Records
---
Amino acid sequence: ADWTAAVAAVRDLPADGRVLLICHVNPDGDALGSMLGFGLGLRRLGVRRMQATFPGPPEVPEPFQELPGLDLLVPATEAYPDPDLVICFDAASGSRLGELVDRLETARAALVLDHHASNTHFGRINLVDPHAAATSVVAEGLLGRLGIELDAGIAECLYVALSTDTGSFRFEATTPAVHELAARLLATGIRPGDISRRVFDTRPFGAVRLFGEVLGRARLEPAVAAGHGLVWTYATQDDLARHDQRPYVLEPLIDSVRCTAEADVSCVVKETTTGDWAVSMRSKGAVDVSRVAVALGGGGHRFAAGFTGSGTLDEVVGRIRAELDGALTGAGRH
Ligand code: 5GP
Ligand code: MN
Ligand code: MN
């Protein structure tokens, strides 16, 4: 990773330089948390002209609506057209930045902070660590090299990012270094119980009922992927409308589906607009779901990946089934 060039890009900002922070479309905890935490750090450094944004409608999911640093957010339509420095967070490729991808050309300096193995190094300076549990780990590394001290605001953002991307410190990427970072974040006085309840354990009653309906129609296909099994379910726009829910409430659904003992691979297929679907995939190890996702136009990590696709529900699920055998890992072939 090119830390020296990244530090220089920040240090070389003119006194009134404009900084634009961008994270991926449909932002999750790591996207928003690493971006806003880093932004609050830059503010401590004295950067005054700064915006944070993401493509699409400027809607922050309810679990993240109390993050510190939200005042940095502007709608994508209002983002600086030609910033002095653009920094991208948690996006594996330019396509994850939607209409904002052109800022990488128009900005004087372009920095990419990420942790996806599939990252295309689309910045001019790329800090990409595929071993990092979250983009917030990379962001904290750069804050440290810039001499910016953690405060409670920065720490809360980075803690949300770290705890969401590690599944509350349960996933394989949860190394001693992750716990050491968590300890430094907690030492600022942030309250993990309050933060976790807000981020993981709060949802509208309508979403509870919607989850019941969507989980109730899950299908198990034990004979798929060399017998490792597939479990999947789907949610339509009509499901959301009937329960009066926003699309982002569906994000945690995959965590309930992937519990299925009889299946290595789990999917939730979510209708975004009529005939368009966003697919979340998880694996327990026999299948590398990032290979399925990349083959179908998306990306992600070995155990968590996704893509968007068009067609009928059966067509989209059929495409997943067709890719599963080709994505078997060493652990999956037998
Ligand atoms: P999730 O299922 O939580 O939305 O996403 C899991 C992982 O897959 C994330 O690391 C995310 O970066 C990646 N991912 C999800 N959807 C897409 C997509 O449409 N395109 C790409 N390139 N990656 C995706
Ligand atoms: Mn993300
Ligand atoms: Mn991430």
---
Amino acid sequence: MKIALVTGISGQDGAYLAELLLEKGYTVYGTYRRTSSVNFWRIDELAIRSNPNLHLVEYDLTDLPSAIRLLKHTGAREVYNLAAQSFVGVSFDQPVATAEITGIGALNLLEAIRIVDPTIRFYQASTSEMFGKVQAIPQDESTPFWPRSPYGVAKLYAHWITINYRESYDIFGCSGILFNHESPLRGQEFVTRKITDSVAKIKLGKLDCLELGNIDAKRDWGFAKDYVEGMWLMLQADQPDTFVLATNRTETVRDFVAMAFKAADIEVAFSGEGVDEVAVDTATGKKVMAINPRFHRPAEVDLLIGSAAKAEQILGWKAKTSLEDLCRLMVESDLRRNQAGFSF
Ligand code: NDP
Ligand code: GDR
């Protein structure tokens, strides 16, 4: 039986990847961090928490001895390192913690692999945030990096140390440079889910107005469920490598706002500029979106659009879900949850 270790089981990707691996017959060890009240709402939504092949284990990413014990104890042959301080905005307020968790966390696992068994395969969750101030359009595996946040810089360290361990110790270390991927399991602090949850609340009369920061930012958004499949494919390949996963389509946050309201049968019109820009419900004349500079970042990533041509050619991976379908899925799920009083 195949055994996999997934760090960050309580996160969006951890939940979907665990679901996929269980479907494929793996025994999955999913790690979570110790807190006074751990929240497993995502694996509960996917109804996999009670699967006998899923084991939840406490693990601190910054503790190398724990990583060594974890690998010895689980016998994992594939390690997917998804745990991270993953919110770009917070990384400006907590840069050191972000470096230790998001950057050094990957090194601890690679060191543990080197010590315990260098044939264990390793997946590192790299990110399009490493492209930051983009040097080419679209971005692919050969595009130079220019991260724009402490998060992006920490991820760049983890990316390069994965490549370094591949080259130095022949470890099967893959780095997936994934562009933004969303789902009904996305955290509410990220812009798409913040929008779909707020749209649902506005539709149900529970909220008047959604507040956002930079709505000119452009992102290449895909569906998380499609992307975890790409992670698995990378670790099944003949050679360890670096792959971009993306949809090759980019839209502004403003476009996503309009799309989400449309999915809830609300038509909106935008007017004004900069911090004075608003969106108004054309049927009622009510303001449903406004700008709050509190959500602006010290440095912004303006435009991301990726080419996943290499992943398609070598892994046979391609994004399957359109942004319209993804957005509708998220709005419908947030409408259901808000009707039921769900608050995650
Ligand atoms: P989430 O924020 O949903 O999940 C992050 C996970 O990391 C959670 O399980 C979280 O635990 C855990 N974590 C956070 N801090 C710590 C810590 N100090 N110690 C241990 N665990 C911790 O992220 P996603 O699922 O969206 O992303 C998965 C990975 O992929 C992340 O590394 C992210 O940076 C990266 N990535 C994500 C992209 C995306 O668009 N989603 C794109 C590219 C890369 P808890 O639940 O307790 O907070
Ligand atoms: P991002 O995602 O920073 O791309 O990182 P996020 O959804 O947080 O922001 C996307 C863009 O929207 C703009 N924005 C807002 N963002 C948030 N969160 N809240 C707002 O109110 C708001 N208003 C405008 C942001 O400025 C930004 O330009 C995500 C994370 O999942 C990372 O872990 C991952 O590596 C990258 O995607 C790829």
---
Amino acid sequence: MSTHEPIRPPVTIKTLRKMASSGEPFAALTCYDATTAKWLQRAGIHVLLVGDTAAEVVLGYSRTIDMPLDVLVALTAGVKRGAPETVVMADMPFLSYHGSEDEAIRNAGRFLTQGLADIVKLEADESFAPLVQKIARAGIPVCAHVGTRPQQVALTGGYTAAGKTPKQAAQIVADAVALERAGAVMLLIEAVPDQVTEDVLKATTVPVIGIGAGPAPHGQVLVLQDLLGLTDRQPPFAHPIAQLGTSIQTAAQKYVQMVAERQIGSRTPQMGTTSPKLSTEPRPATN
Ligand code: KIV
């Protein structure tokens, strides 16, 4: 089979629901651009999360709360254009849903209309249930992100794991239940002890995606850069399965050398380069 042929049928939120109820795990990764989205879809990834981690891995900030809304809307649309047959989940950035409900609903809607997203994600506890209800009422599918909530970093003083005490653990389960009742069609649970995830799974019925929350969730998500060895600060739960950082470095070093030796610029492939189908057409669309 060519690497360009899709290895699975199109995935929708309904597909994820079916997979969750039949016990078939689904794979999610963060993604922030159309080219990467295209390859991840070809690989069979089921969900692409355009996370506010783009603030860190794309824009170079040290916190996710610095993610500009307009940029994330544009990146989301690029990911969906690259992977039209994959569920694209857009993260609502810090302060895009904390002011008035009207503004929050409009911002969530922008992710669907301009951002082409299939679902929006927002970090929430049970106090957000009325807002989730209103966003869902507008026809916007919501994934509620519970457990560790990186947008709380200024309050918590750092990215610390949640749910370690019985009281915190019970609160996370209560948050998940309240948010599902309010209309969330999916949950994402981040960095909690495995037992908390299991309790959330028992208490709720919608698909649950985990990150650093044990092996039990219906789906797993990781930040792509962490998985591919592109990150300098590796989270303890994300083990890289490739070392693309060093591959990029080696390839770029080779390019520097080839430029210095005047080996670049000719139409004939040089020794050590691959020879793609050359085209006189304009650069094709990504999919
Ligand atoms: O923004 C993001 O990438 C996320 C994941 C860490 C779950 O929310």
